[in-house]
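note to self: dont lose this again. the chain is below, predicted strucutre after it. 131 aa total, dont forget to put it in the shared folder this time
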Amino acid sequence: MTHSVPSSTASKSHTNTPLDIPIVHTLYQTYTSWSQLIVKFPKSQRYTLGEVCQQNLLHALEATITAASTPEVEIKTNKLREASAKIDMMRLLFRLAKDNKAISNQAYLDLESHLHEAGRMLGGWLKSLRS
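---
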C-alpha cells in the first residue's frame, strides 16, 4: 500500500525545521564520519572511548536540535551551552583516540575540522542571542 502526501500539504512551500540548520548538518556529518571510524577501533577501546565519543556526539546533536526547536531564549541558551560543552569534550576525546592510535592522524584532523566549524557556529548563535 502506498501513501501519498495530501494535496494541501504538497502545495505548501517547504518550511524550515530544526533539522535544516547548518550546525545540525555539521554534527550529522561528524557522526557519520565517526560511525565509519568506530568499526575499525581496537576492541579494547571500542566500547569505552569509542562509545563515550559516540554518546557525546549524539548529545550535542540532541541539544542543538532542542535549542533550535524552542522559542524560549533561556532554554535555547542553556541547550547551546550544553552542546558547546559536549563539543569541547569531544575535542579532547578525539585527541585521546588519536594519541592512543585508535584513529589515524588524518581522521583526527577531519573530525577536529568538523568540531571547529560546529564550535564556531555555536559561538555565533550564542552571541546573537545575547544581542
